[in-house]
Amino acid sequence: MLIGPEFDAVLRREAQRWLTIRTNDGQLPISSNDLLDFEVEGRPFRLMDAQRGIRKPRELSSAFSIRTVYTVEGKERPYADEVGPDGLLRYKWRGDDPDHAENRALRAAMTEEAPLIWFFGVAPGVYKPIYPVYLLWEEPEQHQFVIDADVARGLVSQGDQITEQVRRYIIRQTKQRLHQPVFRATVLRAYETRCAVCALRHSELLDAAHIVPDSDEAGIASVRNGLAMCKIHHAAYDSSVLGIRPDLVVEIRADLLEEIDGPMLEHGLKGRHGQRLMALPKVRAERPDADLLEERYARFRSAG
What we know:
The chain has about 300 residues and is an alpha+beta fold. The protein folds into two domains: about 150 residues, PUA domain-like; about 120 residues, no CATH class. It contains eight helices and 13 strands. About 35% of the residues are buried. This is HNH endonuclease. It comes from Pseudonocardia aurantiaca.
C-alpha cells in the first residue's frame, strides 16, 4: 500500500476522478450515502466528514476536503463563508482557536498547496462537490482562510493591490466554477428535476434560470430567485419571448401568438400561454419570490 506523499497524490486524484464519473461530469449532486461507495486501493475511504466541516484523514498530513452544510431558505448558515472585496471567497476557521486540529490541517493544506474538495450542501444530506479548490492565504484576525476555486492561483498574492479588471475576472470565473453549479444543483433539486413550464424531466436538457439576472443587485443566488427550465423555455424567458406573472401564469409575447410556425412554437410556446407553471418546489419557502417575479414580469411587458 502506498503511504506518505505518494498515497496523498493518488487519493486526491482518484477521488476527483470518481466524483467526476458519479456526478456525470458535475451535472448531478451526490448524497452523503453515495459518497460511502468510494474506495481507494480496494478499501473504503470517507471523502467527507459526516460530523465536522473539515476532513483530515490520519493517513494525510493536511486537510482533504471541506464542507458547507445546507441551510433551509431564509435561515443563516452557522459559518458565514463570504466574498471579500477582492472577489475571493473566505472559509471560516473551526471555532476561535487557531491551534485547533482542523485549523492546523487547513493551514497545512495551504502550505502544501494541496487541492481540496469542497462539498457544498444543496439539500439535507445532498452535496455539490466543487474541485479542485485551494487555500491561498490566512486572515487570522478574521478567523478565516482565503479560498480559491482554481481561478486566482498565481494571479494574486496576499497584500496585492488588485485592479478592478482582475477583481471582475475573479468574480466572473468564481461564479462559473462555484456559484452557478451550486445554484443549478439547488434549483433542480427543489423542482425535482422538472422544467417549471413544461415538466420535462431530463436533467441534461434543464437549466437553472435566474428570475432577476445575477448581474443585477437584486439577482441573489437563492433558490427563490430561480426556476428550473428546459433550454428552450430558458432561452425564451431570457429573451422576453416568454414571461411569468407573479401569480405563476405563463404568457407568450403577443406578436408570437399571431405567428404561424412549426410544432415547437405552436405547442411548446403558444400552447403554454395562459397556463400555470407545471412544476413548483414542494417546500413553500423555496418557491419563486413574488417581488422578483413582478420585477422580471415588468421587463417582459416593456419588451413586448
